[in-house]
């Protein structure tokens, strides 16, 4: 049995990692909404973020290589285009549509609708045989879809265009995370480390979004004084600085998730994600002025019940049937890394996960 000091250090470490994850995850959501109020070019913003994430992931790979002395994986062009491209295409559309929707909808509606991604992840996991069918999944689907209907029913701040965008993003997100799980679990590719996966995804994601950006925002942005026609240097530097903040937050989100999973467990991240949704809605109503009726709150509670049931089912089956493929559970407007372990965590981390699962089940 660990001594009280070791136990306290472990608790403080876990709390610190969860808080770090909250800062980046909630921060990127409010940052995107804040930026979209004055900068109406979400696709260009996303492209800038992708460039920053690629640069930071490249620097991280270099640091890991210097620390371990082992070269990082670099895929061949054949594997890159055939096996990474579908995941990159789905990820780019998910992120692009998510950021685009902030032009039209509130943070509360975005958060609630994006939570429905669990339904689509379940659907595609069953198709790709990454998830074992069980009768409880029907209840999960009913709770989440029913909660979403209650939340959007007679909403005073409902916007159909933005709702369709984020719902489509949630649907594509189901494809995205399923393909990402398949990609990371192919041992021959060597992309088990999320940093390597992120590094390989960014260039193709940029190429996928760039034509859409040119068609929708290219001419407007080139003639706008927000960036390219800015005549004074300080406003231009301020615009570039504000755009770079989002890319740093997006990379920090993925890295904080990876730290949380590797130091604790995917169960911890799943549970932390549920409470993160609550914190996001509370902040949205208090800071952003989002209006939520009693029916909206009840719908949110019903939806969270479905997500919690899903986490409980995954915990139960993984504990009673041994190791299995972990389903990915991504809900953020930016790159969220899969809930997969990268390598062995060691005896302490395994003990942590067993303890957490026992607490959750009992």
Please specify the SSE layout and strand pairing:
Layout: H1 4-38, H2 42-68, H3 77-101, H4 107-114, H5 117-127, H6 136-152, H7 160-184, H8 194-222, H9 233-263, H10 266-287, H11 294-320, H12 347-361
Helix pairs in contact: 1-9, 1-10, 2-3, 2-8, 2-9, 3-7, 3-8, 4-7, 4-10, 5-7, 6-11, 9-10, 10-11, 11-12
Q: Element order, helices and strands?
A: HHHHHHHHHHHH
Count the E strands: 0
Largest sheet report: none
Going by helix content, strand content and strand pairing, the class is mainly alpha
Principal-axis shape equals globular
Mean pLDDT: 78
The radius of gyration is 20 Å
Q: What's the helical proportion of residues?
A: over 70%
Any idea how many domains? Answer: 1
- End-to-end CA span: 21 Å
Assembly context of the chains: single chain
The fraction of residues assigned to DSSP E strands is: under 5%
Uncertain residue ranges: 322-362
The number of distinct helices, counting runs of at least 4 residues, comes to 12
Question: Any key phrases for this structure?
Answer:
single chain; Sugar_P_trans_dom; transmembrane helix; 0% strand; 362 residues; Solute carrier family 35 member C2; membrane; transmembrane
Summarize the structure.
This protein has 362 residues and is mainly alpha-helical. It has helices spanning 4-38, 42-68, 77-101, 107-114, 117-127, 136-152, 160-184, 194-222, 233-263, 266-287, 294-320, 347-361.
